[in-house]
Amino acid sequence: YYSDPIIPQQSLWFEGRQMKACQIEFRADVADTSAAEKTLKYKAQWDSFIDTQNKEASVTGHRAYHLSGAWVRAEAELAIIESTEVTIALSALCSALGILLFTRDPWLMVVVMLLVIGIICGLGFFMITIMSWKVGPIEVIALVVFVGYSVTYSLHIAHDYSRVGEDHSDLQNAERYAMMKLSKGSPDSVQAVQRPLPPRQLRLARARVALLRMGTATLSSATSTVGSGLFLVC
Known about the structure:
Elements (H helix, E strand, L loop, with lengths): L5 H6 E4 L2 E5 L13 H21 L12 H14 L1 H20 L2 H25 L6 H27 L5 H15 L15 H35 L1
Antiparallel strand pairs: 1-2
Helix pairs in contact: 2-3, 4-5, 4-6, 5-6, 6-8, 7-8
């Protein structure tokens, strides 16, 4: 200790010539990158070992404990994974309230949320089943962030859909164009659009107008997102 004080002083605590505490380092044959469940099972073995040693030790030496960066990483990773369902549920709830606020249509909110849930389930199926990725913090964060991406595009189209009325000029023009394409005639040969439109045809017309308005912007946004992501993959 006195001949080479640098290394011992990091592991021994002396007051005068009396040792108050010491640190012992163990190197275990367990990878730091092991799965959280495996790491915590190994930590439980150390907990049992330390408890046994403390019970058998004297009064002055029965307060031993163990530390490892792997324990912290594993517990944090497990906490993130276990909170995934709650986090996604809260994100979906906030998204549903936002959709209801902007569209003022409960049915549109239900349709959009079903689309979002389907997208998230599809992403989870791709990561876990097809790619066989282990669910870790990065995968959980990707799922949570993807809720926002999924809602954004669907909300824009649903919001536009909710604003289109039967008397809207865009709806009339879209219907005439659709009738012209179906009849393969000229614009002059197309008769006026029937009014009032049947419910099914009205829904189809509103969806057509929403896609005509927002489809290009949504596709451009999706293309730029994919293009940006390619740099991360490559």
